[in-house]
Amino acid sequence: MASIANIVDDKVMTNCTKEKLILFTRYPIPGKAKTRLILELGEKGAADLQEIMTGFAVLNSRCFSSFSGVDVEIRYEGTSKSNMLKWLGEGIKYNKSGYGDLGQRMCRTFEDSFRSGYERVVIIGCDCPGVNSDLLLSSFKALKNNDMVIGPATDGGYYLIGLTKTSPELFTGIDWGTDSVYRQTIAIAQDRKLRTMQLIELSDVDTPDDLNLCRDMKLISPNSENIISVIIVTLNEQANIQQTIKTASKDALEVIVADGDSQDRTVELAQKAGASVFVASCTRAGLLNSAVLKARGDILLFLHADTILPDNYAEAITNAIQSAAGVAGAFSLGIDAKGIGIRFIEKKANLRSKLLKLPYGDQALFMTKDNFLRVGGFADMPIMEDYELVKRLGRRGKVITLPQKVKTSARRWLRIGVIRTSLVNKLMIAGFKIGISPVKLASFYRNQKKRYHNTERKDVENEPTLLRTERSR
Length: 473
Prior knowledge:
Elements: H1 4-9, E1 19-26, H2 38-68, E2 71-77, H3 81-88, E3 93-96, H4 102-115, E4 120-125, H5 133-142, E5 148-152, E6 158-163, H6 181-191, E7 196-198, H7 211-216, E8 228-234, H8 241-249, E9 254-259, H9 266-272, E10 276-279, H10 284-294, E11 299-304, E12 307-308, H11 313-322, E13 326-332, E14 335-336, H12 340-356, E15 365-368, H13 369-374, H14 385-394, E16 398-405, E17 407-409, H15 411-416, H16 418-433, H17 438-453, H18 465-472
Parallel strand pairs: 1-2, 1-4, 2-3, 5-7, 8-9, 8-11, 9-10, 13-16, 14-17
Antiparallel strand pairs: 4-6, 5-6, 11-15, 12-17, 13-15
């Protein structure tokens, strides 16, 4: 993955109205996906590989987009838009790749994009796991001073092509699927006098000989060692972060803190507590996805900065994943405050979580990294990203709510009141279900917080959770 600092520094070069990244893929139907690998992997195994490689490409693209502002679109075949949304989620444009051979489909995609006002467009396949944010950043940079950028594949084709204008000749008369595709394309570009930048050579995964690349990257046959990576997103959490990390570190391989440019001592204290920390300005979903690409564990645990895990949490998670065959899960909700209203909120939340299989982020969501990659990570939304991810995972299998309770800060309930907080949460979910834009929902949520936050003393925000609770009783 690219250095996040580098991407943020280069943010000025991008504009979501001018640049677009397009992924070409096929829906993973057994017998119709990765057909050249069916003899080696079987129909289901080949489709599984198609699924996880596409998910991995989408995750990398979402990370890049969240820091650069480049739009992302998927051109797909073999299914409907609704199925693509159920698989890979919100925040991406979906369009069928349409009729014709690969060249005709790519040419039409470029024409559609330039007609829509984009000035720099890059197309990638989902067969090359080496495509990361560094390479995507280099590609869009190259298009600032070149007509074309191209990434040669070891099999004689190419894994990436980017243009600044429509060039139908590049896609005409090419022997698609042969080892002469790249050579023929470069010859046409030279004949047309296109200024071209060549990227590094990478390997696609199309034949049995290519599978070792996926094994090395743990995209297939991952080791189930039940090693947990804890991921925490922070923003001005100096009052809570050290205790949260201390508790989480007991049973985890690592604690990764993705900080959204805190203005207090959060980063310093997180590092002192032993966490691996990186800082960037982007959406919460972008931070979460970027942290996953850094994670070494085969189980991911997404933890809020003001939430304390229960004792022996790792054993509970691994048992749930193994014995209960869960695709994902969370702990029961415990709120760090007294009162009938708080206890009612807990019971209601835990009942909803168990019956509807919809735990929320403050319950410490967990899942295998394999399942996370298969669905392409968190949708890059300004709010509701955890809810949306759980909905997608729930279509794949069982979502478990464990009886053990986390202990989460009561601050958001105490700040504006239990009833108001519950009402706002219900309105957010209802709005999302009926299709209100996450951008509008996020604006509504921020306005509700500001309405009551402005009446508090600024220094109260940085007091320990228990002290704030005592003041509010």
